[in-house]
Amino acid sequence: MDRMISRRKLLSTAALGCAGVGFGIASAPKAGAFSLEEPAQPVAAQYLAARAACSKGGDAFHAQIVADVQAQLTGEHVPADQQRQMLSGMTCPLCGCALG
Q1: Does residue 33 belong to any structural domain of this protein?
Q2: Using CB atoms within 10 A of its CB, is residue 16 exposed (0-12), middle (13-18) or buried (19+)?
Q3: CA 61/CA 49 separation, integer angstroms
Q4: Of 1, 60, 61, 86, which has fewest CB within 10 angstroms of its CB?
Q5: What's the total number of domains in the chain?
């Protein structure tokens, strides 16, 4: 029975252990696996031009996207009712508006 740990000893050991872990996490170097980079100027210009065209007169652009997707689905022999269902959930990759 001499080996029983008192509550005081248990709590102080747990508190020191948590403090040590917290200090170890706080002093760890930042992970470099994820970083944000600015796009190249030509790519950014193309994106902004396409987005502006999409928001101004996007119907032609949206119709082209829908036609491309329908052609691909038809080539994969997807039934017409499933095509309609898939197209109803699509959004424009540039402006985010619904295409279906």
Answers
A1: no
A2: exposed
A3: 13
A4: 1
A5: 1
